[in-house]
Write a structure and sequence with these properties.
Strand content: 15-25%
Strand order of the largest sheet: 1-2-3-4
Largest sheet: 4 strands, antiparallel
Radius of gyration: 13 Å
Helix content: under 10%
């Protein structure tokens, strides 16, 4: 989440890479990202998302979910 949506939704301490903020970072190559969602399966994960860091914990590593993946959404 970037700063504008975080401010709009009034979600504090997110949206920037800044001291004392949650470390939420997505690392990807835009050329390789492909949506796999369909009408029947709208929550299907995309391919090409290499790393996701949530609250400073690696949640996706080399495209695979880790045990640090949070059980809830923001």
């Amino acid at each position: 989440m970037t700063l504008l949506p975080a401010k709009t939704l009034k979600i504090p301490d997110r949206g920037q890479i800044k001291e004392e903020y949650f470390a939420d970072i997505v690392i990807f190559d835009p050329v390789t990202v492909i949506s796999t969602a369909t009408y029947e399966s709208p929550l299907s994960y995309p391919t090409g998302i290499n790393f996701v860091i949530l609250n400073g914990q690696i949640a996706v590593s080399h495209g695979e979910r880790t045990d640090k993946f949070p059980p809830v959404r923001l």
